[in-house]
Predict the 3D structure of the following.
Amino acid sequence: MPKNTENELGRLILKLANTIIKNRNRHLEALDLTSGQADSLQFFLTHDQATATELKEYLGITHQTARGIIQRMITKGLLELHRSDADARCQIVEVTPAGQEMGLRMIANRERTGGLLLQGMDAMERKNFIRLLTKALANVSDDR
C-alpha cells in the first residue's frame, strides 16, 4: 500500500468517526440527552440492580459526576433510586418506563446510523466491512 494511501486512510476514518459522533450528538439533543446521560442510560438498561459506584467504574468518572448524571436523569423521569434489600446503605438505580422508552428510541437511532453506514452494500460487502473494521480496530488497539 503506498504511503499516501496509509496517510489518507487515517484521515478518512477520523472523518467518518467525527461525522458519526456529530450525528449522535444531534440525535441525543433531539431526545434532550447528553452523551453522558445516554451512555449511563445504556449502562443501566443492560446492568440490572446497578449502583452509582458501578456506573462510575464503567464510565471511568468520579462518584460525584455519576451521582450528578443520575440525579439529572431522575429529574427527567428516566431513572429511580431504591434502597437495596441486601444493604440499606446502598441505592439501586432502576430504569423507569420512560427510560425504557428512551432506550428504544436510542436503539432506533443506532440502527438508522448502522443502516446508513451499510447502505448500498450487498450482504458479502457488509460482512467484509464489519470483519475488516473489527480487524483494523484490533490492529491499532495496542499501538504504543
In short: Residues 3-30 form the longest helix (28 residues). The two ends are 22 Å apart (CA to CA). The chain has a mean pLDDT of 93.
